[in-house]
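Closing statement on the magnesium ion sub-project.
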Amino acid sequence: MADLAPWAVTDEISRGRAFAEPRPKSRSEFQRDRDRIVHSAAFRRLEYKTQVFVNHEGDLFRTRLTHSIEVAQIARSIARALHLNDDLTEAVALAHDLGHTPFGHAGQDALNECMREYGGFEHNLQSLRIVDRLEERYGAFDGLNLMFETREGILKHCSPACARELGDLGYRFLNNLRPSLEAQICNLADEIAYNNHDVDDGLRSGLISVEQLEGLSLFARHAAAVDREYPVLPGRRRVHEINRRMIDAQVTDLLTESSARIANAAPHALADVHVAPPLIGFSAQMLAENRALKTFLREHLYRHYQVLRMTVKARMIIRDLFGLFVGDACLLPPQYQVMAAAEGLPRATADYIAGMTDRYAIKEHRRLFSVGPN
Ligand code: MG
């Protein structure tokens, strides 16, 4: 970490771990965080959780796991180029979606509805709950006992009520402070990753078409450049050439804009980053193009009738399971019965359901609701 910017997060200035531990011998503290995340059960479950397409719909679509790896790749590249702590950035990126329910946003909305009277459900908060509490792997503490800045990066947003409950970690939401630049990078790397891979997956699925995408300036510009360079290119290769140029253009734009903002704000240390406006961001033009792409994906992919059909099924599965478990704690696996005694049956039920993979939830629903041999 020789050439880190003076405002980067380092082991030395970190606010450390809730439970004091000896320093690692051969890695940095944030490398250790990253390694703990990779070895967690919640991380392995991401393999079978939906990004947009349910896991069994095709082998080539992104899952939460491959999405998280793509976010980490993009985030790390940006962090390194800006001389920030890329170990912290990677740790946050790999953990950012740990709290996602099965069936993507449809699953989270359904669980949130079920939990309405019991404090709600939010995947971002759940990611924090997993690393702080739910992982059962260490003798000395619950959760993964991650560094403060890793936890801060995982918690992207939260309500004032929840911020008050979270103490140290909630402080910045109540006082309008920004997280580290490493955390800011992860937010935007998440956006770059999903906007672009959803274009790729959307095309592969046939739910959206190249002709539709050519109505977007970001796509059209790179399509024209690819066609000039390679006038005859078979479909998939052309799509990938366009897609990779779009990612590169977004990352390059982010680096140029963020470097200018940092130069302009002239921070001396991390404390200056907290009180500055967001220093990681896109140029106004790229921001507008990204918004157009997002709107397109919402209208034509996320709300495509074939995707919505799965959404309806997902909602039904989650509601049925929640209703059943919340009516009878005896049906929960023993560790969740222990959680129910500590934090109430609805929260324990939400933890159990949120931890399910798509296929486990489908199987569990079939086991509990279908009469006859399974
Ligand atoms: Mg994400």
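Residues 67, 71, 96-97, 190 surround magnesium ion (CB under 6 Å). With this model delivered, the sub-project is considered complete and its resources will be redirected to Aim 3.
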